[in-house]
Amino acid sequence: MTTKESTRTVLAKIVRERSVQVGTFTLASGRQSSYYIDARRTTMSAEGLDLIGDLGLTSIREAGWEPSLVGGLTLGADPVAYAVARASRESPPIVDAFTVRKEPKGHGAKRQIEGCFESGSKVVVVEDVVTTGQSAIKAVEAVSDAGGVILAVLAVVDREEGGRELVEGTGLPLLSLLSLSDLGLPPAES
User: May I ask the CATH architecture of the domain 4-183?
Assistant: First the structure.
């Protein structure tokens, strides 16, 4: 892959082949859909990690964001964050990763955020698939409560079902690597 556009094209092909399932599905939001995007089948593959890391890091830098960390709500955001962090090793400055637990741990240090996170860190929250935006917002709130400075939200796929509007309504930009049209999928059913 030599260009950002060719990387996006290959990533879209892999997501279509590995992650898009057709049928009748109830999404985490409770909405019904004729397709499901199980991005983990792409984000946890070696090829997907490589593509997402390069494209995610490039997109973050082209947007002018300068985070020291990337991360989001476990489990969907984890491989995305790790891919971007790994890609930064080949193209400094280094961007480390963290993960946000759904709830604070009940023992030990009782943290909700694990990994390289420290209060005051500049952060891009990442997500595999944004539908309603609730997972991204939960991560944003946890990181903000812990003293992080949120720069933006980066998603692999935007299902275009209101998540962008919810995130941007908080004053944060949302950038997605792929859209429904990139995947050849119809808009969400009303």
Answer: 3-Layer(aba) Sandwich (3.40)
List Cβ neighbours of 77 (8 Å cut-off, separation of 6 or more).
71, 99, 100, 125, 126, 127, 128, 135, 139
How many angstroms separate the CA atoms of 44 and 155, rounded?
15
| Segment 136-152, tens digit of pLDDT | 999 999 999 999 999 99
Q: What gap in Å lies between CA 131 and CA 185, rounded to an integer?
A: 14
DSSP 8-class letter at 49: H
pTM beyond 0.85: yes
Q: What is the DSSP letter of 117?
A: -
Among residues 101, 67, 104, 100, the alpha carbon closest in space to that of 84 is found at 67
DSSP string, 8-19: HHHHHHHIIIII
Enumerate the domain spans of the chain.
4-183
The length of the chain is 190
Write out pLDDT tens, residues 13-68. 999 999 999 999 988 778 888 999 999 999 999 999 999 999 999 999 999 999 99
